[in-house]
Amino acid sequence: MGRAVRDRWDDFRLAMMLLTRIPTGGAGVGSATFARALWAYPLAGALVGSLGGLTYWGVLAAHLSPLVAAGLAVGVTMLASGALHEDGLADLFDGIGGARDRARRLEIMRDSRIGTYGAAALALSLLLRWSALVALAAPARVLPVWIAAGALSRAAVALPLMLLPPARSDGLGAQAASPPLWSAATAIVIALAIAAALLRLDAAVPATGAFAVAAIVTFIAWRALGGQTGDVLGACALVAEIAALIAGGG
Fold first, then answer.
1. How far apart are the first and last CA of the chain?
2. CA distance 10 to 17
3. pTM, whole model, 2 decimals?
């Protein structure tokens, strides 16, 4: 196996280790870094989305309600991702809602306890995903839309990573900061290619939705924190996925 191929494989495995709880074998990831591995984030997201879509399909095949199928499918994706993005969303909302100055917001975001703002944001995110899946209804539609949404949303974190400095000197935000331009561009191209392959002309709406809300999260993080953190990245991915799922039903 050539060096370039090994590096890309290590990038993919690191992306899977970061964004999922799905084992990829082995412990070492060579020279891979969170910044360089950005190109592989959409692949990890697409895999998580496929698990959710297949769960939805399987539950309906067992003649259970679409309402139950949607709830269980969301639960499976949370298990597959380790609820990483949900944690980021809750922490970001707690920080922004619980203080007015940057230092205090960052301090609150490091607190492992969840507050009112975080709980409300988390509940809303679950409700919106559940509602979007129920609206999509047909398993043959849910599966491709969710795979596309998973890919698009993980590629969307390229926006805060490319546009914002780290708000802290440590943590995931600092480790993944300033990814190579080729890696960010490749992530976006891969995500768009997956969406186009699965949704054809319908891919434009969820893609636009995912990147639009990612831009909004990026702006909010800039105004409130002066940069990005791991929580910002997780929140960005989650709201982008929600936007893509909702837009996919249009």
1. 44
2. 10
3. 0.95
